[in-house]
Structure formats: C-alpha cells, structure tokens
Queue: 4 jobs
Job 1
Amino acid sequence: MFGQGQAVKTRTFMLGIVLLVGLCSVAAYAQDSADQATDSTPAATPVLPANTPPPSEAKAAPLPASNTPASRVPVVAPANYIVGVGDVLEVNVWKESELSKTVPVRPDGMITLPLIGEIKAMGLTPDQLKEVLTSALQKVVSEPQVTVMVIAVNSLSFNIMGNVNKPGYYPLTRPITILDAIALSGGFRDFAKEKKIYILRTGPNGSQQKLKFNYKDVIKGKNMAQNIVLLPHDTLVIP
C-alpha cells in the first residue's frame, strides 16, 4: 500500500512539472510574437501641411548678392557742391517728361536741354542751376517746378602716372593725401625713384605748379608737410 501511494505522488509531481514547463513555453512564445509585431509596425511619420516640401527637398534661402556695385555718387550738398566738367546731372521738370533729361557736363561746361538749348552748368551749385533753369523754362512752361540732382561725380578726380602698379584716374570724393594715393595705386614698381615724386597742379590762373615729394623722408617722419591733400585734377607723377 505504501509503495503504491508513493508512486501516485511521484507521478502527480512529475505531471505538475510538465504542465509548468508547458505554460512557461507558451508565455515565452506569446511575448516573442508580440515583440515581432511591434518591430514590424512602421514608425509614425509627422504630418506636414500640403504645401510644405518633403524634408529632403527643403533648401536654405539664398543669401543676398554680395557683388552689388557701390554707388559712384558721394553725398553732395545741393547748396554747396560745385558742378564740374564730366559730372552727370539729372534734370526733372514736374509733369514735363519731355523736358526731363539726364545730361553730362561737357568739356566747355555747358549742358543742353530741350526748348531752352545750352545752359552753363560748370561753376554753379545744383541749387543755383535749378534757379537758372526755372527762369529759362518760365518762357515756355507755366510755373515750372525743377529739380537738379548730381548722379555721377566725375569732376572730382586725380591722376596717377609713372612707376606704380595701377596708374590711372581715381575719384576724389574724400580727403586723400599723397601717401593715400600711392597706396590706392598698388605701390611702386621696380626702379621707381621714390625721392623724386612730384605733383603737377594747375592754379586758378591756369599756371602749373610742380610740388616735390620725397617718399623716403616722409615714411621716416621727416618733412611731413610734403604729404599734402590732393586737389581735383592733380597729377601725381612717380618717375
């Protein structure tokens, strides 16, 4: 009796172990299936508005162009600036488009406009020229309203010639000394005579002056008064 009872207990214990192992296996299989289902689900994609390009097509906004040329026109005061040969003027007559013109100042100092012909502009300020044009137009236009603007300053320039890297004409729209001018021209070429530089300047009566400049002395701090400010139409000569 004792042997049969012990055998029944042993079979019951073994059956319990088999059932437990089976339940664990079923649970593990269910977990693996759930993980695989999760991995196979595509990732959520953010919803973009209909007019928004996909991220791969999005581009940065272009930078503003950096090669825009600087204006050739310095700040000129209409009441003080003296118009010179080569300057370009914009003459506007209100409601009279045929009379409004952009005109250069010719070598003789004159400009030409419709109906009034030739008018001397050289030596006048823009404001003075406006009064002259207004007076002339009153003969052909009722109550003319005139404006005169300088749109290109060409009369304020100087010339560099000789043994420099970039000879030519340069605008003189700010104070420029001889040393400044040499720097603007790119410096000396080989064999330039740095002690014998000079400026040719035309005086008010038409006579020419020769102003000497010793570069070697000036850069050593000697006779700094030689480093004068250039005037319009000066010619700097580098032998």
Job 2
Amino acid sequence: MPRRLPPLNALRAFEAAARLSSFTLAARALFVTPGAISQQVKALEEALGQRLFLRRTRAVALTEAGRTLLPAVQEAFALLSRATAAMRERERAGPLTVSVLPSFAVKWLVPRLARFRARHPEIDVRIVADRTLANFRHDGVDVAIRHGFGEYAGMRSVWLMAEDLFPVCSPALAKALRGPASLRLHALLHDETTRDWEVWLQMAGLTGIDGSKGPVFGDAIMTIQAAIEGHGVALTRGELVEREMATGQLVQPFAIRMPAAFASYVVCPEETAELPKIAAFRAWLLEEAANWRRAARGPDRSGTRLDGAMPLHCAEPAPKTTRNLRRKPAVPGPEPVTRTRPARSAANPRALARRQGKPGKRRGRG
C-alpha cells in the first residue's frame, strides 16, 4: 500500500516558518513570497486536518499539533541532507567506474593503468568491460570509452583516437604469403562482421577473393589470438595489436592500410564532465593517446593507405542529436570537428553496398 505523505514543499515551508516564527522570514529564507508560505502551510494543515500555527500580528506560534510535528520534520530533513552529502562525496571521491569494450580494455587501457594510479593514487578505477552501451543513470558508470561517431545526446564526447585497419598474421604464415593476391589461399579471420574484409579487398583492387568467407569470432581478442596461432589473417587496428607486433607474435605481411569508419571517444554526462576524478581520467587518457600516436609513427606505418576506403558498416546513421553529423578530427588531437558525409559515387563503399544488395549492419559500441 503506497504511503500518503504531505507535499515536500509544504513541509519545507512549515519547518522554516516554525523555526523562524515568521512567515515573512521563512519566505526570505526560501526565496519565495510570504503569500506562498501561507498557502503551503494552509495546504499542509488541510492535508493533516489540524491547525499548526496560531496567526498573530507580527509573528506566528506553533499549536500543540505543530510542536509535535516539528521535531519529526526537522529530523527527516537532516537525514535527507546527510544522505545527499554522502552521495555527493562518493561521486567526487569514490571509485571511478569506466565502461569500455573488452578488447580495448585488455589490449590498450589496462596495460597503461599503472601510470594513472601513480599519478592519481587517490582515485580507484573500476573497469566494466562490456559490449553493451553504458547507461550512465542506472549502471553507476562515470565515464565510457565508446567506439563510434562521437555523437551522443546530452553527453560530453571528446575524440580520443582513430586508427587504420590492416592485415596481421603469424610470422610463419607471413612467409607463405606472396603479396596480397595470395590471401585467396588462406583463411580470413573476422571480428563480428565480414564487411571490413570485403571493403579492404575491394579498395585494394583484389578480385577473386571472397571476403565474406572464413572463421568469425565474437570478440577482437579471440580474432587476434587466432591470428597468433596461425589460423589465418586478421584485419585489425593498431591499438589492439601493439604488444603482439612489438614482441613479434604478429606481423603486418603487406603495408596496405584502410582508415576505420569509427573512432574512439571519451564520453560522460555533460553535468558531471568537470568532476575532478572524471576530468583527471579524461586528461590522462588524452595524454596517453597522444603519446601512443607519436610512438606509432614509425617504419611500420609506411606503405599504401587507402584514403578513399570506408568499411561498409559506416552506413549506420549517426546517433540522433540536434546535429546529425559525424565527427572526425582534421589532425590527431582531442577536439573533434565536423565532417560531411562522403560523396555518393561508385567509389563510395556505401553506394557499392546498396548496388550489390548488401545491407549495412547496424552497430554501436562502448
């Protein structure tokens, strides 16, 4: 059975008037008019069926019913005040909960977390590695690293990084590859979708290879491990295989790269974006990403880059906001700028997908 409680505003007016013995002073304290205080008190009296004040010329006095009610109301307000203060303190100084894709967490974020801990030992980080889209209001998530277009209504979205897609395989398998055309003799390893491979092959001008064939794995971590084990060639991003390539577990058999459709963004609600723990983590992430980009610019970055290529899954519309535009920085950096949609031409993979009858797959991550 639901509880029938008096309106909160009426209780606030009653408490202030009783504490100050004046409707006028209560009105000043609550930034309303004396008439508003009088109306709220009258509504409370009617709800309780009892008079709470004796009205006098220059002041008011509590009746016996008012004196009975006042301590309970003051105790309830004090309890609410303490609970609210405790929640705000936890929000500011409690653990920082970060939502991130499992692959990005394992391959890029977690190996770097020790540096954040050394810089901010007062902030405990809680990583939630999940493929579902974080709900900041209900999941207790403070900040998310999302892989998408960067448009999220009501959110502060800051560009973190964008990468190229390129093939990787084990060193042993690389010896058997005699140029990109020899991919037809080996398995293509897929992460969730076969369309990245289809567009990469198309943009590389390779024919006679079915980019939809080959094992499909539900997570990039499994795809990368399959490539390490020599089960085939994977198409992946640099931030996910930097350690494997540094240790020689994986190599890039030929230097043909294609820009990925999505980028990574640091996302949080606009109203909490400047909380110290969130601002500190965001600043650290941007610094780490900038350092990683500088370190990644080396001989392994040379070769052909398919600047016109975009994976077919980019046909997904951007999330609905007041401005339905996709963002991509003109130069590597944290601030996104507006990018218009690619021209609809025969070279555009979206147009090619429609002409070939291949519907785009809707995807959203982070």
Job 3
Amino acid sequence: MPTLALTLIVISLAPFALYLALKRPLIFPFGLYLMMVPFDGVIGATKVTAIVAGLTGGALVFNMLLTRRVLAPPKSWTGWALYTLLASLTALWTIDSLNTINAVVTLLQLFIFYTILCVYPVERAGLRIAGATVVASGTFISLFGLLSYAQGFRTQEDRLSVTLNGLLIDPNHIAAGLLLPLALAVGTLVETRNIWLRLGSAVSAVIMLAALFLTGSRGGLIALAVMLLFLAWKTRYRLQILALMGIGGIASLLQPTVWDRFADKGLGAGSGRLFIWNAGGLALKDHWFAGAGLGAFPAAYNHELLAMYQPVFQGWSRPAHNAVLSAAVELGIFGAVLLLYACWRTWCDARGNVIIEAALVGLAVASMFLDVMLFKYIWLALSMSALVKNAAEPKFLRGMRRQPPPAGSGKVSARVPAWRGARLSAAQRKYP
C-alpha cells in the first residue's frame, strides 16, 4: 500500500516537475541535486546523485536552447579547464592506472556539470532560490546527523557522522561541506530585515553549527573560524558575527568533542598528517615535473613509505590530506600552480558577494587538511561563484535581451541583441 501511494504521488507531481524542469530548472531538478550533494558520500555508490546531475544538466541545456540564451563563462572557467585537461592527460603516464581512470572520470563529470552552470543565464531570483536550497540541504544533513548522534550512533572519539546502507561519510567532509550553507545562513541572518527570514536563518545556523562542532573536525573548526572572521572583517556586522562566534564557542563546551580532540596528545602531529606530508614531500621529489597521475597519491605514498621511517605508522595507501600537496604530487608543480590560479580566479569572480567570498576562503582553509577536489561540495562552491558572476555581469554569447523603454514613452520594451562579450547596463539587467 505505501508503494502504491508513493507511485500515485509521483504520477500526480510529474506534470509540475516537468514544467519546472522546462521553465525553471534551477528550482527543479537543480534544487533536488543541491539537496543530495551533502549525502553524496553515502548515496553516491548507487549513482543516484550522478543520475540527478545528468538530468539537471540536460534540463539546463534544454532551457538554454529553448530561450536561445547562453553566457560566456567567467575567467575562472579557463583555469579549471586547464586543470582538468592536465589531470586527464596524466592517465597516459600514471603509476596507478585504475585509480587514475576512476578519478579522471569523476573529475570530468564534475567539470562538465560546472561548465553548464558557468554558461547558464541565471537571474538574481533564481540565485536566491539556489542559495536557500543550499542552506536547506545543510540543515537537513545536520538534523539527520544530530538525530543519529542522539540515538547513539557515533564514530570513534564520539564524533558525529552520517551512515546509510552501510556507508559512512567522513566527519571531516561533513564539516567542510557545511561551510557554504553556514556562510549563506549567517550572511542572511545579519543582513536581512525580514523577521521570518532572519528567524529561519538563525535556526538553520544553530543546527549546522551544532552538527559541525559534534563532527569533532579540527580542520573544519579552524576553517569556520577563519570564514566568520573574514565576514566580520569585510562587513559592518562585526559585533553581531563576533557575538555569534562567542555564543557558539561557549555552547560547544556542553559537548566538547572537538576541544577534546585538540587537547588529546595522542592525536598530535595533526592526527598523523605531518607524517603523511613528510612522505608526500619525498614523493614530490620523484614526481615534481609530470606528476604521478590523478588519484595516484596513495601509490606514491606507499612507494616512499618503504624508504622512510614514520615515528607513528599511519598505514598504507593514505590520501594527502592537503589539496595543494596532492595536486603537486599527482599533476606536478605546474598542476599545483594551475590549481592555485583557478582558485584565485574563482575568488575574483565572487568579488562583490562577500558571503560567497567567505565560503571560498573557509573551503580553502579546509582544503589544507583534506583532499577535496573530487567532492561535489567543493565544485558546488565553485559553481556558486560562477552563478554570482553571471547574475551580476552577464556576457551573452547569443540570444536576445529586453531593453527598458524610454521613460514616458508608453512603449513596450524592445528586444535587442546582446553581443558577444557585451556588458549590460544596470538598467538592462532589471529586465531579464
């Protein structure tokens, strides 16, 4: 009976879903994709997220063909295109063919989806809906994790995590994935004048902060502090943000999971990261020019481990726990430079939107302790930067754009071409 009821609900909602997919793809299916991104670590094995991403990309492309409007991608796209190209070429000389092929396939899928969003003519209303959905997704996974934590499901060291179908999300990645929705929630909380929007943002921020603290992620906490301090520095809401940080810090003492991990002498050397980075430094000497191959850092680490001494053995096939070191070993020094350049261009694209800037700064800090480049939440942040740029300064490759009529003319707004690379005036952007 529940299956029949679910089938009837799906059939009844299908026409609305189809309408949104054709007319408002940023609401659906992109909204569904955003809700699934935080759970990708546990449902990715079933390819559900990949299927939804494919449907979303198809809906966005169809909408661009239907409206005949396509944007030139922002400058950051070139950096990520070069990074993806070099990473793909390393499959020709990798030391670990299987892992490199899998990593290249994942990276190409992420880059193609990112490219579609880079050329999509988003409007401010659609961007706000996407931002609200990102906050909702972070709140949802936080509630899920808090409920599991309250029921007694915890990882080692009493840390919050999420598990489905026997698959577990690394608590460190949960914390890093919450940085973007937290930036959006806190930014909305301090700047909006709408009481209901402020209340909703406050509730979401409290739930996500609680979940992030309980993950026990020291890197995530450092990234959160840097992100909030950046927001305080760049906005006039310094006292409010600093007060929020103080309240959050005091409240975290009620369940000091993360502070216990900072104080635990057994977790010295960054929980063994320093030993891993030492091995990565030796691997870099061998692969500094061409790289070991995308996804081949564990193999390079194993090779160096046989020729070095670790005061505390960290095990075999360990990831780099540092995105820059990982890129340098896997793609060579030029690959690491490309990664830094692409990140800098992405941050430049977000200039003017301090919330996205802060989120990118926080994720940059988190990436110093994690390998993040093959995770959807990092590419979502890159996509949000591109969408912000496109909403503020659209550069049309082709299509028509309505121009506001002269004041007092009484005429209907005319449609004028938006030429390649043309920047529309502020008045024109009010008439999407």
Job 4
Amino acid sequence: MSLSGTVPRWQHGGMELRPSYPVRSRRLLLRPLRRSDAAALAAYRGLPEVCRYVPFEPMDAGRIADRLAGEWARTALDAEGQSLTLGVELAATGDLVGDVVLFWHSREHRGGEVGYVFHPGYGGRGYATEAVHALLHLAFDRLGLHRVIARIDARNRASAALAARLGMRQEAHLVRNEWFKGEWSDELDFALVEDEWLAQHRGGSPSCGQGTQ
C-alpha cells in the first residue's frame, strides 16, 4: 500500500510516461529528436570510437533518417517493451550533445533500463551525468519504475564510472558472456532501486553537473 493507504496506481495497470517537453535540468534540455537533428546525430553516432562498446555500428545518414522516422519518433511510454529516446540539448546554445534512452522492460516488475551516447567533443563537463540523472527522475518519479539497470561493456570505463556517480550499484561482472563485434566481451551490470533513489533525494536533488562525462 502507498503512504495514503490506497493501492498504488501501477497496481491498477495505470503506468505511463508522457513528459512535458523539454525536460529541463540545470544546463540541459531533454526533448524528442527531430529530423533536423540528423546531421548532429551523425556527427557522433557515425564515429567508430563512439560505437566501439555499444550495440550498433557507426550510423550513416540513411540509417539515422530511418530511426528518426521510426522508433526515435516516440514521445511517450504507455506499454512495456517500449523505449523512449530523447536528445540532449545545451540550454545555452541549442547544441545537440548526445541522446539518452529509457527502456521499459516490465510492467509487472516495474523494471527498466537506461542507455546513453554522447559526442566526445563535449566530454569532461558533466553533461552525460546530468542528462541521465534527469532521465532517472522520469523513470522513478514519473513512470513509477521500481528498478532501473544499465548494462555496460567492461572495457567502457567512462560509462561504468558514470553509472557509479549516479548511485547505481555494480551487481555483476559477467565474464565473456557475449560474442560482441567479433570477440567475446565482459559485461558489467549496474542497478538502482526506488528506495535507494528516494534515499539519495531526501535532502534535495544532488548536483549532477560535475563529472568526467
């Protein structure tokens, strides 16, 4: 039961996420991707070094256009199995510096996953940490998820450090668990559950503007 003594909304199957855009953080705007973002997306999603440890190959203009017309066009979540990809824009300049994604895996277990891809030219300023923190607010506070995970290639130390800065616990190191881009790779599994999220924010939301990404 909830604190009010009523059955939580998620137990009635009423979970959904329909953000008002843009979603604002201290320096960033999270908003749906647009066709006009194609060139900015290609500037980092087309780089081999950006794609090295993520489950896609460098993207050309055609593939980005297909994604923009397809799965990246979603602006809300109303059923498990869906994902919501949002562009990360600098509020001060309008530059698109990356994108983040929230996967809704299970309604029954209230489970989800986050992912993130950023332009390396904007690294070292805390933008990725700030953006994923805002995404976690949507996951826990708006959608009502109980548990959010991040799955990271063990060689991607910067991504693992970002998850740790967000208060996510490393729960597993899976050794050579996946044939990935021509070789066996290790996977690090991080997670955060709702009571841990709430404990982090009892004294107010911590600053997420610092960090290496």
